[in-house]
Amino acid sequence: MNNAHRVNILIADDTPENLRLLSGLLTDQGYEVRPAPNGRLALSGARTILPDLILLDIRMPDLDGYEVCKALKADERTRDIPVIFISVLNEAEDKVKAFSVGGVDFITKPFQEEEVLARVRTHLRIRELQRDMEQEIKERRESEESLRTERERFFSTLEKIPAFVYLQAPDHTIRYANMKFRNLFGDPEGRLCYEVIRGRDKPCEVCPTFEVFKTEETQIWEWKRDNDETYMIHDSHLADTDGSPLVLKMGVDITVSRQTGEMLRERTEDLERSNRDLEQFAHVVSHDLQEPLRMVSSYVQLLERRYKGKLDADADDFIAFAVDGAVRMHALITDLLAFSRVGTRGKPFEPLEAEHILEQVLANLSVSIRESGAEVTHDALPSVIADASQLARVFQNLISNAIKFRGEEPPRIHVTAEKKGREWIFSLRDKGIGIAPKYSDRIFVIFQRLHTRDEYPGTGMGLAICKRIVERHRGRIWVESREGAGSTFHFTIAIPERI
Q1: Segment holding 457, helix H or strand E
Q2: Which fold has domain 8-136?
Q3: How far is residue 445's CA from residue 334's CA, in Å, rounded to a whole number?
Q4: For a disulfide at 65, which of 58, 108, 152, 466, Cβ 3.0-4.6 Å?
Q5: Which are the contacts of 249, defined by CB distance < 8 A and separation ≥ 6?
Q6: pLDDT-based confidence at 433, cuts 50/70/90?
Q7: Is the CB of residue 457 less than 8 Å from the CB of residue 348?
């Protein structure tokens, strides 16, 4: 007997000597004993503190043992407490009555101590086993209830998901189908899967479901509905339900995604073809157009050197216009070629020091910086993943513009960088002539100029090239400026997820 819980025994007997003997005997065995000298106190005590077992005399004043036992068995709280009658009555009818009112055993007085202990231990053990069984039954019911709840929740979820789901038995019958399935194929109850889904009178010769039953391995396959342009993808794996092998099958209609994929493939091919055409255009620009332009430019410059001042003033002006036009056309074609090749001729991105790139750019611009009296400063600049030559071009175009579009004072340019989220924001601040906010987007469009060529030379391609380079680096470029108050150009370089 496990006495982690100290066993409580109630003894009811109107004979003091019997109470003393029984109490002493059971107390010595480690039981907690509560004596009651009559039936009424026994009934009250049993209801106040539930005992594990009751030894009950029959002949007692007020309430006899039979009446006490009947009252205990009528009460839901005490009905399961085992009652052992202990009495001088020894007739068969007395014992039959004791068992009929709910007793579990009968001991005849005068009692033997060994018999009392043996019967007490036996019924306490039975009581313990009953409690264990009741607990096991309770836990099993709770487990079954939990399983039933989870099952209901599971099937409730299946009813709501956008994929069609069904359970298929080895004989091809569909045992369950969710709402999506029923909407697509109708009510499948008691029908064969190949009849419902494929409209056939026999199973497919090669059905992945068979592989699931044989190998217990998940099967995924794609198929097209007969006489239909609808494409499906299936996922099947083994699932035990109520001890029966079933295959849980899920599927989705991928017709739209296939059509989208086909459209993307066609557009990718169009883009590749367009890129090839662009490459061909760049080749034409760089060779076929540049060659006659160089010839025109050379002969016009030859005319200028040979006949300048020998013809009338109009002729000199005409020759000057032609030379200027040829030079500008050459610069325009060169910039247009650079713009077209940002994406097609760019170098792979690599780790580099932005500060080192800026120093190279300042060395390239040393003459114009010195002639303009410009001062270019910078904070510490970060390491980035970029195309070195293209990043240098962005710095060079922006610094050249700051020098070109300066005010009365020598240019003052400051370069900074700040990390925000998954990108670096580079900023170039100057104290130049500034830009009206209404033109802040226009300046990044090719061939868009805010000033005449007589005021500020150039092709109008520099900022457009910067924008295209920055976008290749998955970044943005913008300007904050006011007329007469200088400008701050910002551009971002993305930070890869893994460096």
Answers
A1: none
A2: Rossmann fold (3.40.50)
A3: 17
A4: 58
A5: 165, 166, 167, 168, 209, 234, 235, 236
A6: confident
A7: no
Q: Which residues contact 270 (CB under 8 A, 6 or more apart)?
A: none
**Which is more confident, 277 or 56?**
56
The CATH code belonging to domain 161-253 is 3.30.450.20
Q: What is the pLDDT of residue 285?
A: 59
- Inter-helix orientation angle 462-472/313-340, to 10°: 10
Evaluated on CA atoms 343, 348, 350, 353, the torsion sign reads: negative
Instruction: Give the C-alpha separation, 72 to 68, whole Å.
Output: 6
Q: What is the DSSP string of 70-138?
A: HHHHHSTTTTTS-EEEEES---HHHHHHHHHTT-SEEEESSPPHHHHHHHHHHHHHHHHHHHHHHHHHH
> Which residue's structure tokens are 């459209």?
263
What mean pLDDT is reported for the chain?
80
Spatial separation of the C-alpha atoms in residues 412 and 431, rounded to whole Å: 6
Counting every residue written for the chain, the total comes to: 499
Residue 269 has a pLDDT of: 75
Amino acid at 478: W
The pLDDT of 456-461, averaged and rounded, is 58
Task: Please state, in angstroms and rounded to a whole number, the distance separating the CA atoms of residues 345 and 25.
Answer: 104
Q: Could you say which of 3.40.718.10, 3.30.565.10, 3.40.50.1820, 3.40.50.2000 is the CATH number of the domain covering 350-494?
A: 3.30.565.10
Angle at 30 between CA 24 and CA 34, to 5 degrees: 55
Domain ranges of the chain: 8-136, 161-253, 259-340, 350-494
Q: Which residues contact 6 (CB under 8 A, 6 or more apart)?
A: 30, 31, 32
Tokens of 77: 């709280």
Residues 6+ apart with CB under 8 A from 17: none
Task: Indicate whether this model's pTM tops 0.70.
Answer: no
| Secondary element (H or E) of residue 21 | helix 16-28
> What letter does residue 410 receive in the DSSP assignment?
P
